[in-house]
Amino acid sequence: MALSAVAEKQAIIDLMQKTTVEVTPGGAAKVDNFANILRPGCTVYVTFLPGSDFADTVKTVRRLKDEGFNPVPHFAARSIPSAQFLEQNLASLQAETGVTEGLLIGGGVTNPVGEFSSSMEVLETGLFEKYGMQKMGLAGHPEG
User: Fold this and answer.
1) Within a domain: residue 89?
2) Domain of 129?
C-alpha cells in the first residue's frame, strides 16, 4: 500500500528524529553553522583519525556542544600512544566540554601506535570512569 504524500513526509520526519551523524574535525571546519543542516540536539560523532591531533577533536566537540548538539568523541584504541596521553586528553575534554558520552573503537590502523591493541585494554584503564564518562559506545567488526 502506497503512502500519501503527507504520510510519506511524516514518515521521513519521524525517521530523521532518531538519526545520528559523524563528522571529522576537518569537515566540521568547513561548516559555517551546523544548525542550518542538523536538527537541534542531534547526536554528532566526532572522529579521531590516525595521524590527527586529539585537540582538534576536543575543539570540534566544544563547538558542537556550544551550538546545541550532543557531540560524542571517538577514542581510537590503536591510535592512543599511552595511558598518559589518554588521561591528558580526557582531562582536557572534560575541562573544556563536560561531555559524558564517547565512542571507543579499535581504530583505523592495523599496528598500534602505542600500548593499546584493543578497545578492551583501553576500557581496563578505568580512565573513562575517572573522567566522568557515563556512557561509552563500542564498535565491533568481525575481522578484528
Assistant:
1) yes
2) 20-138
| Residue 78 near residue 103 (C-beta atoms within 8 A) | no
Does residue 9 form part of some domain? no
- Based on the structure, what is the number of domains in the chain? 1
Amino acid (one-letter) located at 88: Q
102 contacts 75 by C-beta, under 8 angstroms: yes
pTM of the model: 0.86
Mean pLDDT of 118-142: 91
Which band of pLDDT confidence, cut at 50, 70 and 90, is reported for residue 37? confident
In contact, 91 and 120? CB cutoff 8 Å: no
Cβ atoms within 10 A of the Cβ of 102, count? 25
State the cell numbers at 23.
563528522
Grid cell in block for residue 137:
559506545
3 inside domain? no
Mind listing the pLDDT tens digit for each residue in 75-85? Answer: 999 999 999 99
124 belongs to a structural domain: yes
* SS3 state of residue 17: coil
**Which of 60, 65, 3 is CA-nearest to residue 28?**
60
| Cβ–Cβ < 8 Å for 109, 50 | yes
